[in-house]
Amino acid sequence: MAALTATAPARPRKLLASRKTRVGILYALPVVVYLLVLFVYPIFSTLLLSLKNPDGSLTLHWYADALTGVNLAVLVTTLRISAETALFSLVLGFVLANAITRLKPLWAGLAMLIVVVPHFISALVRTYGWIIMLGDKGLVNETLTSLSVPGAPFPLLYNELGVVIGTTSMMLPYTVLLLYGVMRGVDRRLLAAASSMGAGRVTIFRRIYLPLVAPGLASAGLLSFILSLGYYITPALMGGPNQTMIATLINQQVTKENQWNGAAAQGVILLLLTLAGLLLVKLISSLGASRKKRSAS
Predict the structure, then answer these.
(1) In this structure, are residues 113 and 135 in contact, taking their beta carbons and an 8 Å threshold?
(2) Is 40 helix (H, G, I), strand (E, B) or coil?
(3) Among positive and negative, which fits the CA dihedral 36, 42, 44, 48?
């Protein structure tokens, strides 16, 4: 027993004595320093700031303030708009990705290019494009008015509908990319086998295709939801006072009210919501992988 305890501390020293290990640590050191300085330190500083009073004493007042009154209403609005964005992105993304998977490789590549290329255009430019299109004299309302649609022009801007339209357009490329990869991995022979055994299209979709792509649907929906939580530009430009989201509130607290402690608490809450969503995505991906392994075996 004494010999074992004597040799135990020697293992790390022997490991560090290896040239390969020292070179690996040397290569990893810049990355570790980068993460500590630009990731860990800002988060830790924000957490400390959210727990301090102006006199330097520790308090939970800022979290209580963030979860009551107007701040709570903003948080609920953020969650609601993010959920609506995720839902619409999921529906549109499913239709688009499913249609693209049925195309020939050349046309599928061109379709994916059309979907992805707008993502590389500035979000500010795309948001102003939507403002021009959805305004009272924009392309959409002018077309509806020329078609004598009752009620036109419709209020499509500076309300929740306008925000959801804008954020959905921003999240759609992510959803399509994720779902396209999942749908391409579905073995079409399973669908053909079910069809040859007399199953109808609805039955094949409900009992075979949908369960196979369900993990991808959940991951894509959660990703859109997480990204929408911290979105700032589109809700600020296309929404009204009732569509204030948490990122806009943080900006107002910092730039207009000089309330850094409250803004830090809001940021920590947003970070926790994001981490919870990411953990849920990881869990769903693990369940999907284990289900695929069971089906393969």
Answers:
(1) no
(2) helix
(3) positive
